[in-house]
Amino acid sequence: REIQVPNLVFKLPDLNPEDRLLLMLDKQGGNMSFPLNFINSSELQYQGVKKTFGHSIFFGMMFFSFLIALLHGILNNRRAIIIYSIFVAMTLGFQLNNTGYAYALVFPDYPEYSTTARMFFNFFALLSLLYFQYYFLEIKKYKKIKTIHYFMIGLMFYFIVTGYFLVDFYKQHAETFVRFYFALNALVYLWIMLSSILLLKKEGIKAY
Description:
This protein is mainly alpha-helical. Helices cover 69% and strands 0% of the residues.
């Protein structure tokens, strides 16, 4: 793109005072609201630099956390910590995509990749978090919790695989899928908290 900023930017043509500009929005079957600002390119880049500075600190800390966890897991042969580092990496990728930096700097000519990348990073983050909990809390020792945990992991694999092969189907039913997507996220995090509370009674401070 001409201007490398993480926002969606539309360059306006030069207009005479008597000209009118019509902005067309693509309706996706639901309500959507977002700020619409008119700004010159130099001011846009200046504001972008200030935002990027703050985001760079945040993303740098996440990347540092990923490296520390990965090295600690490898050097100490701890599978749970290695999987945790993958969770941090997937969360970092999700945030880069969600804030627009991946779109601005990695695939500026392919906006359709943004949705795909968001799904990829989110589902792999949830999957790695479930695996981390499985190994760190030794869930395999508890039959009932293990069964539900396997079901959650199976759901993640199902949507990762079908999301790749049935991407057109999901686009056709986008509104329904988005609702299910958020419900599934809530379900996984709710299960992680609930299972940790149950294990807290059995394992003590480790589960906490």
